[in-house]
Amino acid sequence: MCGIVGYVGSDKALPILIEGMRQLEYRGYDSAGVAVAEGGSLTVVRRAGELTKLEQALDGNGMEGTLGIGHTRWATHGPPTDGNAHPHRDCTGNIAVVHNGIIENHEALRAALQAEGHELSSETDTEVVAHLLEGAVAQRPRPLLDAVIEVIAMLEGAFGLVCIHAEQPDSIIAVRKDSPIIVGVPDGSGIVASGIPALLPHTRDVIPLDNRQVAEIKAGSVSLFDFDGEPAEPRVVHVEWDISAAEKGGYEDFMLKEIFEQPEAVRNAMRGRVDLSGRILLDEVSWDADVLNDITKIVVVACGTSYHSGMAAKHAIEHYTRIPVELDLASEFRYRDPVLDDRSLVIGIAQSGETADTLAAVRFAKDMGAKVVAVTNVVGSSITRDADAVLFTHCGPEIGVAATKTFLGQLVALNLFALYLAQERGAMAEEKVAETIAAMHELPAQIEEVLALHDDIQRAAKSLSDVSDVLFIGRGVGMAVAMEGALKLKEISYIHAEGYAAGELKHGAIALIEEGVPVVAVMTGPSLYEKMMANVQEVRARGADTILIAPRGDERAKALATELFEIPLTKPLLTPILDTIPLQLLAYYAAKERGLSPDKPRNLAKSVTVE
Ligand code: M6R
Q1: Ligand 1 pocket: which of 355, 362, 410 to mutate (most atoms within 8 A of CB)
Q2: CA-proximal residue: ligand 1, atom 5 (nearest)
């Protein structure tokens, strides 16, 4: 996620902005920039890369102004370049804007602005806001506050916005819509940021804007308004946390924070990709119908957790489209002499976009003439350059080494892609697509329900802390969940775990079962439920402790469970999006119980850039 900082007061703005941006660095970013007002004009400096690059560019710049805004950008629209970094300005260069979130209707707004003669210089969605403000301010001229209230009515999507005008140097205007904005007014100054850590060096009394609020921040005061311009009362919150706790938003670890961010991650992965009638709009894969209809087979290549989302995607794509799908570990793919041609579509999945094996697999596939779609969370990453089309998961940066919210983002993006292919090829009736999309819209609320089980899961994790082996079993898409659950447990708790197809137990692994061996069974899939029941009975008869992930209200599962986690009902192919969450939490709490640091497991890295 990007970071926003703004300052107005009597001190030099620049050092305060840089310090605030440093406090927000932990959120991840790939470019940074500042705008400072002085003598009726703005100086803007922006750089791709680390904050130190920006600081080098600012060295000796001598900005003295006492009003400014800064931003650390995590690229979503347009790669991380100097020109796409925030702040963005209007044609006059007097208005500067920084933004977190996504302006969904930016393309239509951009076209209208260009038709009016505005010159936009970046590929971002944000820049349209600066140009819309230019028009709104020029009308009379009038205060930036009024112009902002007029402009936000034209915007769709999620936006935390902070704007300044060089000719109105006594105020900053900030807006919160589905993206946090926090204000502080310490010692005759005004400071605004997207995260509490940036405010803590200045004040512990902060004013978090409510959703759909606008703030006019001046030195020593703040006035709040709703989107209609009606005044609102500020709510002051005293922050007790220290900075490191604030970075984690009050969670003990980034992994836990990221697990709890999953409702939002799923919303973001769907945002702007579905219309009101439930039709899927995937502009990213805007290939001609001929190209889409021509695909004769799909190959999915990925590693680790991404491989598991690919496993679930294979089921979805084959079911919805009837196109045959092969699934390969990226590290194996090019060594097996695969059969590919120009009618093959290869899907490369990598949250980081930098995994060496996945990049090599994708390049190999391209050389053989296949089309490539990349699924990744990182704009500007290497895989985006090698692919013909990219589906971003839009989860925001994931700091914990263990992939959690990006896994759910991948599942959502891949399900949407599968449905899109079915829709465009006429393999699925429109109502059926819309019905599945309606079920997907329910997922964020259902994820909240699953997250509410965290206390029970923490208690269950205690019993895992001193075991040496855990078996995870599932069938169908449940097998992908079982494998992901086992990977999570082993990578952060260092407990040996195996993810297994439940039907394979009797061919060997059942020999491992004895009194007290924990077996986690994923049994929400209705069509394979009876078969899973039989497998659970088999392991229980041999003394296993059973941890069951079962549909809510399932009395039969209750009777067989040592621990039971009940999951809300959804469409069978969407069950991994809910079933994985208890297993993430189980792994997290088991690691904590063993005194380990879940964010930085030994021997592992967030991006695996070597083969
Ligand atoms: O960036 P990628 O998705 O390609 O990463 C692949 C694996 O290295 C990654 O999923 C790894 O298994 C995670 N640490 C799992 O939590």
Answers
A1: 355
A2: 350
Specify whether the CB–CB gap between 492 and 596 falls below 8 A.
yes
Structure confidence by residue, pLDDT tens digits, 305-347: 999 999 999 999 999 999 999 999 999 999 999 999 999 999 9
State the Cα–Cα distance between residues 119 and 474, nearest whole angstrom. 55
Return the closest-CA partner of residue 270 out of 171, 392, 355.
Answer: 392
Question: Which residue's CA is the nearest one to ligand 1's atom 7?
Answer: 304
Catalytic residues: 2, 606
Fold for the domain defined by 3-245 = Glutamine Phosphoribosylpyrophosphate, subunit 1, domain 1 (3.60.20)
Selected from 3.40.50.10260, 2.60.40.10, 3.40.50.10490, 3.30.420.10, the CATH number assigned to the domain covering 454-593 reads 3.40.50.10490
- Taking the C-alpha atoms of residue 390 and residue 79, their distance in angstroms, rounded to an integer, is 12
> What's the CA-to-centroid distance between 540 and ligand 1, angstroms?
33
What residues does ligand 1 touch, defined as CB less than 6 Å away?
Answer: 303-306, 350-352, 355, 358, 401-403, 487, 491, 604, 607-608
Q: What is the DSSP letter of 209?
A: P
Instruction: Tell me whether residue 259 is exposed, middle or buried, using C-beta atoms within 10 angstroms of its C-beta: 0 to 12, 13 to 18, 19 or more.
Output: buried
Ligand 1 midpoint to CA 238 (Å)? 38
**Superfamily grouping for domain 249-451:** Glucose-6-phosphate isomerase like protein; domain 1 (3.40.50.10490)
Distance from C-alpha of 94 to C-alpha of 78, rounded to nearest angstrom: 23
Q: Kindly report, residue by residue over 470-508, the tens digit of the pLDDT.
A: 999 999 999 999 999 999 999 999 999 999 999 999 999
Residue intervals of the chain classified under CATH 3.40.50.10490 are 249-451, 454-593
Instruction: Cis check for the bond before 141: say yes or no (omega within 30 of 0).
Output: yes
Whose C-alpha lies nearest to ligand 1, atom 11? 304
Q: How far apart are the first and last CA of the chain?
A: 29
Give the nearest ligand 1 atom to 605 CA: 14
Instruction: Please give the C-alpha separations between residue 395 and each of 265, 266, 550, 588, 611, in angstroms, as whole numbers.
Output: 5, 8, 27, 20, 26
Report the sign of the C-alpha dihedral through residues 187, 193, 199, 204, in that order. positive
Tokens (6 digits) for 167? 């000719």
Task: Considering the chain, tell me which residue range(s) the CATH 3.60.20.10 domain(s) occupy.
Answer: 3-245
Per residue in 158-200, pLDDT tens?
899 999 999 999 999 999 998 889 999 998 999 999 988 899 9
520 CB-near residues (< 8 Å, 6+ apart): 470, 471, 472, 473, 482, 485, 547, 548, 549, 583, 586
**Is the pTM of the predicted complex or chain greater than 0.90?**
no
How far is ligand 1, taken at its centre, from the CA of residue 442, in Å?
27
Structure-block tokens of residue 577: 């999006």
Angle at 300 between CA 294 and CA 306, to 5 degrees: 145
The angle subtended at Cα 406 by Cα 400 and Cα 411, nearest 5°, is 150
Contact present, 482 and 576 (Cβ < 8 Å): no
C-alpha 288/C-alpha 67 separation (Å) is 49
Residue recorded with tokens 């044609």: 91
